[in-house]
Structure formats: structure tokens, C-alpha cells
């Protein structure tokens, strides 16, 4: 493996959720520790599963991994970091100021911005803390999904520039105001990130066109902020010899080969590695140890001939959704599970029935247009583009609230509108605007990889705000939160793959939603090999492994569910999207005419 | 020159741009503060959400909070004495307290009224 050759102090693995960067980061950490190095493995993923991989509880402090000498791990839980941050600020005045005042401060510090900054603060600490650097020869970061990673990594550059400009006092850096004191530390963190002697960035992708385009974008963005030393790992590549007697395996091998051949030019010069698709699940140290070592990988294990999978298709869910004639359909789940594609499939299937549909995505790396080539009359497609929304919102505030200001005042307001809060507010307002349409037509949305926290948080506070403003006036009103909580108006579809960690994460998300009073309407298990009825021995082993996960979804987690097979062709365009839903070929020909 | 100290309610940010609805009073006041400082005035702002210790350690401010609660903020002290509470001062008042000879250009907002605090009570940050 090239990326393991002479590794520097800091190794970052980045890529969309579901590409396997947790597994690769874990396997790398194990490999380095077994080679005699002292290693710290860090997960900054809000939905971290490093603990699950090692079968222990890790949490927000450095924890030794009992089964691997010299290896410790740390999960930066953004929520816990935010709580610690709140305690630092509020703790000293508890009992000194009235309780109601203290409660108000806590409320103010419980939003997404505080969470982001508190997590970032810990991240910076890891890059610069001398005692950690003395203790560990390598720090391996299993970073969050791409959008989040970029934000985290872009922050140091942005903050340093900002703090150097000396605008810290007036600006809307919110909780960051208190971090001004550590200016030198931020600069050190930025320097460490941009130093090829200390930092290596490993882009992790699958051999799929969209995934490779995605890492090319990440490559550009991170290279622009100085992380030039990048490697590429293509994970889960199906071995060529599996193609011999299985049309599905042959199609996958061909598709993956084509995707790799058509790799964006910008990725070609990078040192790269391919990690083969394994028949086993990457949980536990033995499995991870074998990941980079094909010589040790066993052939497919002896598997019993299971009965073919009988599971409801996506069409059965769409039937239920269509009955109401309108409403909000939200696909939620980790990045990389195919929310955007499934949202497009649901939208096309509803539109195919002649229903009015608005399909929209807030995925920062949206490829809806790539997925949906050929749009129908009663189907509109839009994207909540965070950058465009933020710019629109900025202009709006400057033109309204800033109208009376002199030049100097305007400049300051403009500066403040560059804060990270602005994007969240702007995206949220765009979201609120679009979901209002769901009273008249279908609005189908995927959500950004970390969208659910933002959504729940922002919607919750907006809800309270509207209730505060409207509550006393006896006016009938509906807030976005009320709309999300009403199953007649909103159907949440949880999307997962038939993999242990992803199913667990979806179950966690379901628990979060339930706490917010939102009951997911159905689950979708996407890209199922089992549902595709493979012949190849390796794929059959994968299919066999999937069954326990599908059973858990069907029997424990979901009120209703569907399984979507892995297709021989990538689901691009309306026709293949319909195939994904299970609409029969004949119907499709007629309807698509 | 006397120090002007402004004790803000729990704000995400001092201009209020991160609220669900941007507060006009805060936008105007922030511009006024910026102007007064550029004229040489000494002005400190304390945000209850970020520097609660500054509130707790000042007997006048602490007493004010105990009596009237956070809803009664902002509180403005000039030379340590209460000069104004419940609304933000305008450019003219700032100039007078700071002893600025001229009040400069026309005030941007003659009587900036507090409108429920920055971030309008929402959890903006």
C-alpha cells in the first residue's frame, strides 16, 4: 500500500460516508501499531463508529485499545465537546448569577455553531498539543463526511486570516470570541495541516464515477488550502476473476473498471492503491488486519444455500406515499448510502403517476442533475446550494437591515455576514421556503450528510421563535417543526445499506428523530447484493452477510421497509431510476413515452 | 475620557446577524460603536453568553440582573455608573458620554429600540 509507505505524523482519511474510511483508518492504525509505532486513532465523525469496530466504548477521551498494543483511540463527539464548552463558560457563574439568567446563557450556547466550534477546538488541540505529539508517533484521523471535513479543515485558514485582521472583537464569530487568546495555536494547526512532512491526506473513494468526482472536488478544495500531499485509495474493488460466471459480478467489474478508466485527470498523478472487496464484514481486529493483505484473506467461507430474499420493493412504499396526493418526503441517512439517488427515484416514480413533484437536494456535493438526465413536465428539480443561498441571504440582509448604514457600518455588517452561522441560517430559510410547497404537491428532499442535526436544531429554535411571536396573538399558525412531526404531511424515509455499522447508525438517527417527535415512516435498504441474487461466490457471501442486517431492519427497526437491489447499471436517468423502484419494464415503457 | 461599558444580553454575535431575523437595533448600534471608537471613544461590550463572568464580577451589573433579569438588558455603564438600561444608546448619546467634540455624521438610527435581543431569542449559534 503506497499510502502506508513512510507515513508522516498525521494521516487524514477523507471521503464520503460509506466508502469505508473508518475501516481503512482503523486498519492503518492497527498496522502502524503492530509495526511498533505508538498510534492515536481519532474519529471526528459526528456518527463515529470506531468504538463499534473495536467492540469497546471509546468516547470523548483517549482510550487504550486493549487488544492492540500501542494503539489508543479517541472519538470527538461534537455534542459532548459542545457540552464541555458550555460547562467551561457557564460553570463559574452558576450560583453567582440568577438561575434564569444562567439558563438563558446555556440556551444561547446550545446551537450548531457552538457545536462546530467546540469540536474544531479539540481538533486543533490534537495537532498542536506537545504532550500528545511526544506520546504518539502517528495520529490517524478518520474524518467526517466530505462536506463536514472541508468545513473543519477550512476553518483554521479562515480563522487565522480573520484573527490576524484584528476584527475579532466586533465580529460574529460567536463563541469563537473566546478563542482569540489561542491565536498561536490556530496558526500552528494550519501550519501542521499544510506541511507535507507532517501531514498526509488520503482520499478514499469507491470505484464509482460519482464517488471519484466527489474526491476530485475534495482534492481541489483541500489542495487550495495547502494540503497538497494527497494519496488516493479506491476501496472495495471487486476482483476481476469473480466476473467469470456471474452477470452481476461481470457488470460490477466492468462498471468499476470503466469508472477507474474515466477517473478525473486531477486524481491521476496521486499515488494510489486499490483495496479489494472482502467477503467478510470489517468488524473486529482480525478482519481489519486482513484488509491490506490479500494473501491472508480466506476465500469465501462455506455458506449455506439461503432461500432467496423476499422483501418489499420500493414500489410498494411509493404506492403508500402516492395515496395522499401531496406531502413532504425526506430521505435521511448517512452520506454515501444513496439518498440523492433514491430521492430522485421516488420523485420520478411519483411524477410518473402524473403527480406534481418538486425534487430538491441540500447535498453539498449534489449530483441530482447527473443522476436525473431528462426531466418530466410535472417534475421540477432544484438544489439548495449552500453558497448561493448564503450569498442571497447576505445580499438580502445588506439591502434591508443595512440600508441605513454608512459605508463603514456596511463594511462591518458585511464582515459579520461572513460568519459560519450565516450559512446555516440561509440554508435553513431555503429549506423552510421549499417545504411550504408540500401542501399542494409532493416535495421530495434528500438531506445533507450532517443535515439532520442542523435541521432539527434550526427547526426547533425557529419553532420556538414563531410560537413566541405568534403565540400571544391567537393566530392560527403552522411551524416547519409541526409540519415535520405530522405523519400526514411528512414522511421520513431512513436510508441505509445492509452493513452492521450503517444499520446501527440509522437506528441511532431514528432514535434522534423520535426524540424530536418525528416518527420515520419507512426504511430503505439500498444497494442490496442479496436482493440482486448474485451467482459469484464472493458476492453470495456478501449477500449472505446482508441477510442478518435486512432481518434486523425488517424485524426490529422499521415499521415498513423496502430493499433496493444493487443494479447492473448505475441508476442514472429516469428510466433506470424507475427500474430501481421495481416498476415493471412494460409499465415503464408506456409511462415514459 | 470615561469608559463606556455595554452589557449585552446573551447574543450569538454583537451585530445580531445570526438570528432567524436580523435585529435592526443591533445592526445600527454595532455601526455606532464602530464609529465612536474610530473617533477615539473607549467602549467595551460584554456578551452575556460569552463573558458571563464580567457580569457576575461587577456588583452594579450583578445587582441589576438579580433585580430585573436578563430581559432588562442591555445595560450601559459610563464611568462605572448606570447611564442607560433596556435599550441601546444612539450615536448622539455615545458621542456625548465619550465627550466627543462633534457627533460626526447623522446618527444612523435615532432611537434604536431593543427588539427582543440579538438572535431574537433563537438559538442562533
Characterization of this structure:
With 593 residues, chain A is α/β, with parallel strands linked by helices. Chain A is 47% helix and 14% strand. Chain A is globular, with a radius of gyration of 24 Å. With 125 residues, chain B is of the alpha+beta class. Chain B is 30% helix and 15% strand. Chain B contains four helices and four strands, in the order E-H-E-H-H-E-E-H. In chain B, a hairpin with a 2-residue loop joins strand 3 and strand 4. The longest helix of chain B is centred in the N-terminal third of the chain and has 15 residues. At the A-B interface, helix 4, helix 5, helix 16, helix 17 and helix 18 of A face helix 1, helix 2 and helix 3 of B.
Helix coverage percent of residues of chain B?
Answer: 25-40%
**Main sheet attributes: strand count, strand direction, barrel closure of chain A:** 8 strands, mixed
Radius of gyration of chain B: 14 Å
N-C termini distance of chain B: 35 Å
Question: Biggest β-sheet of chain B, characterized?
Answer: 4 strands, mixed
Q: What is the residue-mean pLDDT of chain A, rounded to a whole number?
A: 78
**Structural class by secondary-structure content of chain B:** alpha+beta
Order of SSEs of chain B: EHEHHEEH
Write down how many β-strands of chain A occur, each being a DSSP E stretch of 2 or more residues: 15
Number of helices of chain A: 23
In short:
In chain A, 47% of the residues lie in helices and 14% in strands. Chain A is an alpha/beta fold and 593 residues long. Chain B has helices at residues 24-38, 52-56, 59-68, 91-97, and strands at 4-8, 43-47, 75-78, 81-85.
Amino acid at each position: 500500500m503506497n499510502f502506508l509507505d513512510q507515513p508522516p505524523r498525521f494521516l487524514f482519511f477523507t471521503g464520503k460516508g460509506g466508502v469505508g474510511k473508518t475501516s481503512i483508518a482503523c486498519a492503518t492504525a492497527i498496522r502502524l501499531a503492530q509495526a511498533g509505532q505508538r498510534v492515536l486513532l481519532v474519529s471526528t465523525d459526528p456518527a463515529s463508529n470506531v468504538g463499534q469496530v473495536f467492540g469497546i466504548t471509546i468516547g470523548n477521551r483517549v482510550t487504550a485499545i486493549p487488544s492492540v498494543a500501542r494503539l489508543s483511540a479517541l472519538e470527538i463527539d461534537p455534542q459532548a465537546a459542545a457540552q464541555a464548552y458550555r460547562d467551561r463558560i457557564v460553570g463559574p457563574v452558576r450560583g453567582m448569577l440568577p438561575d434564569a439568567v444562567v439558563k438563558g446563557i446555556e440556551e444561547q450556547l446550545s446551537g450548531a455553531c457552538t457545536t462546530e466550534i467546540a469540536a474544531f477546538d479539540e481538533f486543533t488541540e490534537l495537532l498542536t498539543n506537545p504532550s500528545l505529539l511526544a506520546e504518539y508517533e502517528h495520529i490517524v484521523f478518520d474524518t467526517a463526511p466530505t462536506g463536514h471535513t472541508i468545513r473543519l479543515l477550512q476553518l483554521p485558514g479562515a480563522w487565522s486570516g480573520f484573527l490576524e485582521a484584528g476584527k475579532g472583537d466586533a465580529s460574529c464569530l460567536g463563541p469563537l470570541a473566546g478563542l482569540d487568546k489561542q491565536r498561536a495555536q490556530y496558526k500552528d494547526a494550519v501550519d501542521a495541516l499544510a506541511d507535507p512532512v507532517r501531514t498526509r491526506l488520503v482520499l478514499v473513494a469507491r470505484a464509482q464515477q460519482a464517488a471519484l468526482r466527489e474526491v476530485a472536488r475534495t482534492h481541489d478544495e483541500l489542495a487550495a488550502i495547502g494540503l497538497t500531499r494527497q494519496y488516493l485509495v479506491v476501496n472495495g474493488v471487486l476482483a476481476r476473476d469473480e466476473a467469470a460466471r456471474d452477470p452481476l459480478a461481470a457488470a460490477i467489474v466492468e462498471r468499476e473498471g470503466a469508472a477507474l478508466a474515466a477517473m478525473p485527470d486531477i486524481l491521476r498523478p496521486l499515488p494510489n492503491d486499490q483495496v479489494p472487496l472482502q467477503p467478510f464484514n470489517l468488524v473486529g481486529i482480525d478482519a481489519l488486519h486482513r484488509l491490506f493483505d490479500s494473501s491472508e484473506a480466506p476465500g469465501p467461507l462455506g455458506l449455506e444455500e439461503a432461500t432467496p430474499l423476499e422483501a418489499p420493493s420500493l414500489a410498494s412504499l411509493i404506492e403508500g406515499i402516492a395515496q395522499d396526493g401531496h406531502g413532504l418526503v425526506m430521505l435521511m441517512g448517512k452520506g454515501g448510502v444513496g439518498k440523492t439517488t433514491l430521492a430522485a427515484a421516488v420523485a420520478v416514480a411519483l411524477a410518473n403517476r402524473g403527480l406534481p413533484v418538486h425534487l430538491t437536494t441540500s447535498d453539498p456535493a449534489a449530483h441530482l442533475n447527473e443522476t436525473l438526465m431528462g426531466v418530466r413536465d410535472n417534475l421540477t428539480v432544484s438544489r439548495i446550494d449552500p453558497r448561493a443561498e448564503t450569498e442571497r441571504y447576505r445580499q438580502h440582509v445588506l439591502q434591508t437591515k443595512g440600508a441605513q448604514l454608512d459605508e463603514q457600518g456596511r463594511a462591518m455588517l458585511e464582515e459579520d455576514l461572513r460568519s459560519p452561522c450565516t450559512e446555516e441560517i440561509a440554508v435553513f430559510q431555503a429549506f423552510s421556503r421549499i417545504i411550504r410547497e408540500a401542501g399542494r404537491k409532493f416535495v421530495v428532499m434528500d438531506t445533507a450528510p450532517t443535515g439532520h442535526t442542523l435541521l432539527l436544531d434550526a427547526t426547533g429554535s425557529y419553532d420556538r421563535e414563531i410560537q413566541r411571536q405568534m403565540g400571544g396573538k391567537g393566530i392560527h399558525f403552522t411551524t416547519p417543526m409541526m409540519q415535520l412531526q405530522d405523519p400526514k404531511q411528512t414522511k421520513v424515509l431512513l436510508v441505509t445499506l445492509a452493513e452492521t455499522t450503517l444499520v446501527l447508525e440509522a437506528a441511532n438517527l431514528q432514535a434522534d428523530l423520535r426524540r424530536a417527535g418525528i416518527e420515520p415512516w419507512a426504511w430503505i435498504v439500498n444497494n442490496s447484493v442479496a436482493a440482486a441474487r448474485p451467482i459469484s461466490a464472493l458476492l453470495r457471501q456478501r449477500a449472505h452477510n446482508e441477510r442478518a442486517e435486512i432481518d434486523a431492519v425488517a424485524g426490529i427497526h422499521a415499521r415498513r421497509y423496502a430493499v433496493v437491489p444493487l443494479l447492473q447499471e448505475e441508476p442514472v436517468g429516469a428510466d433506470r431510476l424507475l427500474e430501481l423502484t421495481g416498476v415493471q419494464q412494460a409499465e415503464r415503457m408506456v409511462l415514459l413515452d | 475620557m470615561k469608559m463606556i461599558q455595554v452589557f449585552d444580553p446573551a447574543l450569538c454575535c454583537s451585530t445580531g446577524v445570526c438570528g432567524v431575523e436580523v435585529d435592526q437595533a443591533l445592526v445600527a448600534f454595532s455601526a455606532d460603536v464602530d464609529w465612536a471608537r474610530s473617533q477615539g471613544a473607549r467602549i467595551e461590550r460584554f456578551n452575556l453568553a460569552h463573558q458571563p463572568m464580567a457580569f457576575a464580577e461587577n456588583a452594579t451589573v450583578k445587582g441589576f440582573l438579580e433585580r430585573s433579569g436578563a430581559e432588562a438588558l442591555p445595560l450601559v455603564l459610563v464611568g462605572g455608573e448606570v447611564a442607560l438600561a433596556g435599550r441601546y444608546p444612539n450615536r448622539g448619546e455615545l458621542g456625548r458620554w465619550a465627550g466627543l467634540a462633534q457627533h460626526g455624521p447623522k446618527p444612523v438610527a435615532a432611537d434604536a429600540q431593543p427588539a427582543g435581543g440579538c438572535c431574537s431569542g433563537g438559538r442562533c449559534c
